[in-house]
Design goal:
mainly alpha, 0% strand
Amino acid sequence: MNIIFYEWKRNWKSALKVALFCGIILLVSLPFTPFFSEGDFVPQMREALDMIPSFVMSFFGFYEGQDFTSHAQYLGFVHRFVFLVSGVFAAWLGGQFVAKDRWEQTMDFLLSKPLKRWQIMLFKVLANVLILLTVILLYRIFMAAIFKLYDIFGLTLEMDAFPMAKMLFAMFTIQLFFFALGCLLSMVIPHGNLSIATSVGIALLFYLFEVADKSGSGLGVFSILSPFHHLQAEKIATSPGGAMVGFILVSLLLCGGSYAIFHNFDYRLKEPY
């Protein structure tokens, strides 16, 4: 249990900053709801900015066929960037899972405890999942406060059609996937900074695959690998379904692979490979 507390204490401030940043994204986006809700807004914007490559427009969510005619769809568009920020944070968190302890030489301390390796792994995973849930809880609190603030100033939002719980669950699913992937990378990359950079880089690459698919680029074929493709915030906001269970199962398999590596190598050595 001390491991859980130590891990949570080490990262809770980062969780607060990420949740606050996601809240700021929502805060600055809501005043534009009436403008974006006009049916021809996206086509007009794409036409006015036709000198900008389609890939760049798609990166910011203004791809061909984008629709903001309802408040739920616009909020889904905003959460595209919330998903990206929270996913990158989870990748950062996973990338330092073991690599940071090895680089800072605190692994000896962990392995000297009267715990089996599966217990150390379990406690560290639980602590980091708790961090991810902390982000979601704080973001939900910020979201409620922001909606209340705008309601006071007379900006009414049609929230009845917005699947809040499903959106937050999809956000957690993306976080869990990138955390598990980063965790696996941290097992095989000995240097903490390199492990984190690789994990975050892959998360960004998966987002770019989704952008490439929206812009019609040839790289879009790789979007089938990306959770940003299967868990598009805009679609979750307006339609049932989604691949959340599948990505959770993949995340568990990645964690299982991480444990297999952790169980079979002597991490008390600085360079075990």
